[in-house]
Design goal:
single chain, mainly alpha, 4 helices, about 75% helix
Length: about 100
């Protein structure tokens, strides 16, 4: 199944929200669980769209995400870099859809 450009736009929007949420969680450690939950929902959405390559990347991100309520994230920089790479991949996918018509 070919994923529509609109779907990639929605995924990009969700990734942007996740990125902002992650950055906010740096100073509000309680937000880590909310970030983890939203990332899990994104994973499910990607799997439903059969975007398995992207779903694998989100699964990797979640594997390194260990929500904590009282202390800073141990993998903050790694998670941030993963989100940035995902955003770049989504932008590439949207560009491909524009080229395809």
């Amino acid at each position: 199944m070919a994923i529509k450009r609109e779907d990639w736009l929605q995924i990009n929007k969700e990734l942007s929200l996740l990125y902002e949420m992650h950055e906010a969680a740096i100073s509000q450690t309680g937000k880590c669980r909310e970030f983890n939950s939203r990332a899990s929902i994104l994973l499910q959405h990607l799997e439903e769209l059969e975007a398995f390559d992207m779903a694998d990347r989100v699964m990797d991100l979640l594997a390194g995400c260990n929500p904590k309520d009282t202390s800073p994230c141990d993998s903050r920089l790694s998670t941030k870099a993963s989100l940035e790479r995902l955003q770049e991949r989504i932008k590439n996918k949207m560009s491909e859809r524009e080229e395809d018509g």
